[in-house]
Amino acid sequence: MYLVDTDRLHHAAIANYLTKSDRRIIAGARFVLEALDIPFPDYLERRPAGRPFGNRVMDDFRKDNPETLHQMTKRTSREAAARIGRNAP
After folding, report:
1. What's the rounded Cα separation, in Å, for the pair 43 and 66?
2. SS3 of 3, please?
3. pLDDT tens readout for residues 42-76
4. Angstrom distance (rounded) from CA 52 to CA 13
5. CA neighbor of 38 nearest in space, from 79, 73, 13, 8
6. What CA–CA distances, in Å, run from 27 to 20, 34, 70?
7. HSE (CB half, 13 Å, CA atoms) of 3?
8. Cα separation of 32 and 76, whole Å?
9. Which of 5, 11, 20, 21 allows an S-S link to 25, with CB 3.0 to 4.6 Å?
10. pTM of the complete model
11. What are the helix (H) ranges across 1-89?
12. Longest Cα–Cα distance in the chain
């Protein structure tokens, strides 16, 4: 049995190195910690899949504009068709 000092994982230099490392190094660090049943520090937690910035922008856009572009196009097309129908002789 070996004792592991997990406080070193929270050292600023180690956190800085691992957050700026290649994804393979980060994956290796996660593997070792998972194999030894050591909880991950916050900086090694996986981020949500996808593009977070794009998702955030779209969420904010949807708050301001709940109607989708497709729905808006269909609505304006119906309105335009109705106007054309009224103006017909």
Report:
1. 35
2. coil
3. 888 887 776 667 778 888 888 887 777 788 888 88
4. 26
5. 8
6. 13, 10, 41
7. 2
8. 57
9. 21
10. 0.52
11. 12-19, 23-35, 52-64, 69-87
12. 93
